[in-house]
C-alpha cells in the first residue's frame, strides 16, 4: 500500500500492529490530518477509536499486498466523488 500510494503522489503513514506490539504508531496529529484511514479486516485494531469521524476503508491483508494499486484507484475515485 505504501508504494502504491506514493506512486500517486500521496503522503502515507503506516502503523503496524502485531505480536511485537505497535510499530510506527500514528500520532494524534497524523490521524487528524489524514484524509482517509485504511484498516485491515483480518485482525482487531487496537485503539481504533482514534479514527472516529474519519473515512475508513477496510481491506484484507492479502488484498493490501496483492492488489494495492486497485485499492488506491478505488480510494482515488472515492475522494474525487467527495471533493
Give a short overview.
This protein is an alpha+beta fold. The chain has helices spanning 2-7, 28-33, 61-66, 68-82; strands at residues 16-18, 21-23, 37-40, 56-59. One of its GO terms (molecular function) is kinase activity.
Tell me the number of strands.
4
Strand order of the largest sheet: 1-2
Rg from Cα: 13 Å
Proportion of helical residues: 25-40%
- Strand composition percent: 15-25%
Distance between the termini: 22 Å
Q: How would you sum up the global shape?
A: globular
N to C succession of SSEs: HEEHEEHH
Characterize the structure shown.
A hairpin with a 2-residue loop joins strand 1 and strand 2 (21-23). The protein has helices at 2-7, 28-33, 61-66, 68-82, and strands spanning 16-18, 21-23, 37-40, 56-59. The strands form 2 sheets. The chain has a two-stranded antiparallel sheet with strand order 1-2. Strands 3-4 form a two-stranded parallel sheet. It has 4 helices and 4 strands. It is α+β, with helices and mostly antiparallel strands and 83 residues long.
